[in-house]
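PROTOCOL LOG
Step 1. Enter all chains and additional molecules of the complex.
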Amino acid sequence: DGGITQSPKYLFRKEGQNVTLSCEQNLNHDAMYWYRQDPGQGLRLIYYSQIVNDFQKGDIAEGYSVSREKKESFPLTVTSAQKNPTAFYLCASTGTGFTDTQYFGPGTRLTVL
Amino acid sequence: AQSVAQPEDQVNVAEGNPLTVKCTYSVSGNPYLFWYVQYPNRGLQFLLKYITGDNLVKGSYGFEAEFNKSQTSFHLKKPSALVSDSALYFCAVRDSITGGGNKLTFGTGTQLKVEL
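Step 2. Run joint prediction.
Step 3. Record the structure below.
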């Protein structure tokens, strides 16, 4: 069963804590992405990676960090420097062709208590 | 630079009537256009895409979209709406000459509400 998994589905964080969101894919895709979704703002790109051991900042990278040690995995850490982290976080992956479709995981909802 | 606009925050339609969700785009090169649907607290599901060729693209669940180059539009359509079509719909664009990353730019989404 191919696809993208994200865990946990719901995550609660106290202010000042770092938390890590997991994203795993078995689609053999080279590129992976992290988006943040807030009501009425669509999807905003946080970080993306086109190949193992390499990643680039998206539009709203401040307060976030990522790693890409394996092709299948692209974890996102929300650091205490992110001032307003409560949001729905979506992971996606795609092949490297311009016409390739980007597929999404089920999302993680992060709430700061 | 690439951008996409969805001018309607919400579209209401009666079940059985045709529906249209609007999308316009701006790119420097050729556009690659995508439609996704999102149900509450779920990830985005791919519906269809336009790459090249026929301007009418057919996708999942009876949806189709019409590419209009002169109007820079890619409106999503369905001949007969179902209550189960009620969801949030996103249009996305990728520019053929944009720099690396195969990044998509998403619209802000249109909430579709289909009523009995």
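Step 4. Note key features.
The two ends of chain B are 41 Å apart (CA to CA).
Chain B has a mean pLDDT of 94.
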